[in-house]
Amino acid sequence: MPTESKGFVPTEDQRPAVTVDVVIFSLVENDLRVLLVKRRTPPFEGMWAIPGGFVRPDESLETAAARKLAEETGVTSVYTEQLYTFGDVSRDPRSRVITIAYFALVPHEAIQHQPGRYESATSWFSLAKLPPLAFDHEKIVDYALQRLRYKLEYTAVGFRLLPHEFTLTELQQAYEVVLGEELDKRNFRRKILAAEVIEETGKISRESEGRPAKLYHYRDDSNPEVKTRRLFP
Amino acid sequence: MPTESKGFVPTEDQRPAVTVDVVIFSLVENDLRVLLVKRRTPPFEGMWAIPGGFVRPDESLETAAARKLAEETGVTSVYTEQLYTFGDVSRDPRSRVITIAYFALVPHEAIQHQPGRYESATSWFSLAKLPPLAFDHEKIVDYALQRLRYKLEYTAVGFRLLPHEFTLTELQQAYEVVLGEELDKRNFRRKILAAEVIEETGKISRESEGRPAKLYHYRDDSNPEVKTRRLFP
DNA sequence: ACAAAAGTGTTGAGAGTACACCCATGC
DNA sequence: GCATGGGTGTACTCTCAACACTTTTGT
Fold it and tell me: What are phi and psi of A148, to 5 degrees?
């Protein structure tokens, strides 16, 4: 804390509450969705909201975000990034609440729902058909989507939405769904392989109907955030 | 705030304190510098720190950052952007403090020091020769510098470090100082003009020794954050 | 006329984009 | 053998990078 004997110093009851909210993205049925929870208490009772909660005195912000993610999805080590901090005075009608928003990319197959532990209901919503959201959460989701698209254009983190092993066609479809545009197959493959973040496993997938596809996975020796030129389109 | 009847709810004394810190950049003597204040109270008494203070109950985070900026520099409408939120448990040895860091670009000529109003001393430090900083402020400054460089590579906000009117050579020097590399004069001019964020004023500068230079200023009809391809180098 | 800084075009290399056909398997 | 999706190469365009001389002013 940077301040001195001067200026405004808040009393304990003037301190804002601090929460973390996590925008959790996943691909379900080849569709980009976010996980929402239904509120059971006022304000906004019955409305959908992104998962979040208070930061505990003994945990860092990243830890709080990871804890929230684990509580809602059962998933522990997935791509998570701080998004933005929202602190408008009246964003919560009850009292001053500042929230540090995160976003996470979760492979859908990894998720184990924790039914009814805390929440009355959690559900995945397509970004095209979001319900009305509590607080300023619509703004937060919009911002997260913008950032996700930007991330995918300039880096190679798209595979974080997929299972551990995946085919190039699955990866391309993930990019197409998130970016909302079709990509050329040959150019996509050339670029994603040139980024040197994924490699063949040697195995092949027998999922598809036609010719079997090679399976790829993440190379953990090099980082996916290679921001050189624009990767896509 | 997203939470319900469940889980952890902090009592008032478990709430973290919330501050904003502002990394203020300016060009002084063709050198990129940050404004630091000398702490007069423990902890880190006598050490330098970036300006900051508590968020008041009735002001937004952006307002708090703008207020801090005005208190330290007298400047009101300059380029300001939220940087990152730092919230490690022990970043302040006294108590839990979460800080939302901002960075600002200030034209040096616009600054009026507010001597001794609050601080014992404020001073501009070259980024190459920073003193030891209080708290985790070195990390914050490093991160701000990284972001500033990234911003300048992909957008055309460099002129925010300059007076209202400036020559292309001055602008190029600003980019060179921040990015730490020399740029080609012809390529620089072509690119910065292609971005269509600045235009000729019609006036000429008689500052330089040789041939007089055209003065340019910001076109407020188009936004400087045109992220197309990489602008520089 | 000379010093000092402003201003201005062209060329070659590399990256990006568009585009169509053969391949391996299951049924 | 045919339907289905997997896998591959090339030509054109355009952007990026490298590079040196002329112009305008003050002294």
Answer: -60, -45
Q: Please give the average per-residue pLDDT across A20-26, as a whole number.
A: 98
Cβ separation B2–A229 shorter than 8 A: no
Which residues is B125 bridged to in the sheet?
A: B34
With CA atoms as reference, the chain A residue closest to B65 would be: A87
The pTM of this model reads: 0.93
For residue B208, the model assigns a pLDDT of 82
The Cα–Cα gap between B188 and B175 comes to: 10
Q: What pLDDT digit, counting tens, does each position of B85-127 carry? A: 999 999 999 999 999 999 999 999 999 866 555 556 899 999 9
If you search the block for the tokens 């007089």, which residue do you land on? B212
Mean pLDDT of B184-212: 93
Domains in chain A, please, with CATH? 15-152 (3.90.79.10), 157-218 (1.10.10.10)
Residue B129 has pLDDT above 90, yes or no: yes
**pLDDT exceeds 70 at position A232:** no
For A31-67, b where at least 16 C-beta lie within 10 A, e where not — what string?
A: ebbbbbbbbeeeebeeebbbbbbbbbeebbbbbbbbb
Nearest residue of B to residue A61, measured between CA atoms: B87
Strand A213-218, strand B17-27: pairing: unpaired
- Report CA(A128)–C1'(C10) in Å, whole number: 49
Q: Does residue A118 contact residue A39 with C-beta atoms inside 8 Å?
A: no
Helix B137-154, helix B168-179: angle, nearest 10: 130
Give the rounded distance of the alpha carbon of B218 from its chain centre: 19
Closest of A212, A211, A215 to residue A203, by C-alpha: A215
Which residues numbered 178-207 in chain A sit less than 7 A from strand C, measured from CB? 184-187, 190-191, 206
Q: What are phi and psi of B108, to 5 degrees?
A: -60, -35
State the nearest residue by CA to the C1' of C27.
Answer: A209
